[in-house]
Design brief:
The chain is an all-alpha fold. It has one helix at about 1-40.
Length: about 40
């Protein structure tokens, strides 16, 4: 039981890190898209 809880915590933490990177990447892509559209 304890092992499964710690394993779930690890997976949740891993998903949280991935989501943080995805949010950062989406913000960067939005900024680059704004810059490209402004240059046109």
């Amino acid at each position: 039981m304890v092992v499964s809880i710690s394993h779930n915590f690890e997976s949740v933490f891993f998903i949280f890190l991935i989501n943080k990177d995805l949010i950062r990447f989406s913000r960067l892509s939005q900024l680059s898209f704004l810059v490209v559209s402004a240059k046109k």
